[in-house]
Amino acid sequence: MSWGFLCDLLSGVNKYSTAIGRIWVAVVFIFRLLVYIVAAENIWKDENDEFECSIRQPGCENVCFDHFFPVSHIRLWALQLIMVSTPSLLVVFHVAYRENREKHHNQKLYRSPRRIDGGLLCTYLTSLILKIGFEIGFLALFYKLYNGFKVPRLVKCDINPCPNTVDCYISKPTEKMIFLYFLGATSCLCIVLNLSELSYLIFKYSIKR
């Protein structure tokens, strides 16, 4: 995950956003990106080593861990951050296209290349719809993979090659569950902000029409 790339991307998007869009950028940067780098990554970095089962049957502990944690929380969260941030590149590229077009023709073709209207409005709305889709998709994925954002202290596993039902213990379950709830809450907040911005732009454009 590239810290520099996401910082540059979010800073660039901030130039072309509405007031609601700037709030979204602040939420992603402060409550998601910084929390991921400062705290969340440390909580899950040793999750495999700290997962223990009450039997030393070779392979049993590994298959149980893979069953209860099919995808790492932290890698899935990193992927979510990247996926919800990259649709904003569409807006950045469109503005760059407008500026290069004016430079190529050596004349003013738009009232302002960064003004959200015409084709740029369609691009902006598309980026918002993609963000909302990714947020909802990842929330559903987290809910399905981790049984409704729950991290139990004890899980029972009877998967081959375990000879019988064994008890497996997850380290720091309360701490991990708090971060999962925080992840879900920030995702919901971003969905609300994106929906608000989408509604605002559509309403503003309808009034002008």
From TrEMBL:
Q: Which PROSITE patterns match?
A: CONNEXINS_2 (PS00408)
GO molecular function list: gap junction channel activity
Q: Which species is the source of this protein? A: Calypte anna (Anna's hummingbird)
Which protein family is it in? Answer: Belongs to the connexin family.
- Function statement: One gap junction consists of a cluster of closely packed pairs of transmembrane channels, the connexons, through which materials of low MW diffuse from one cell to a neighboring cell.
Keywords assigned: Cell junction, Cell membrane, Gap junction, Membrane, Transmembrane, Transmembrane helix
Residues forming the Connexin N-terminal domain are 42-75
Q: What is this protein called?
A: Gap junction protein
Domain Connexin cysteine-rich, by residue range, is 134-201
Please give a single GO biological process term from the UniProt record. Answer: cell-cell signaling
Annotated GO CC locations: connexin complex
Subcellular location, record wording: Cell junction, Gap junction; Cell membrane
Major location category of this protein: other
Stated membrane topology is: Multi-pass membrane protein
Q: Where are the transmembrane segments?
A: 20-39, 77-97, 118-143, 178-203
User: Do you know which InterPro entries this protein is assigned to?
Assistant: Connexin, Connexin_CCC, Connexin_CS, Connexin_N, Connexin_N_sf
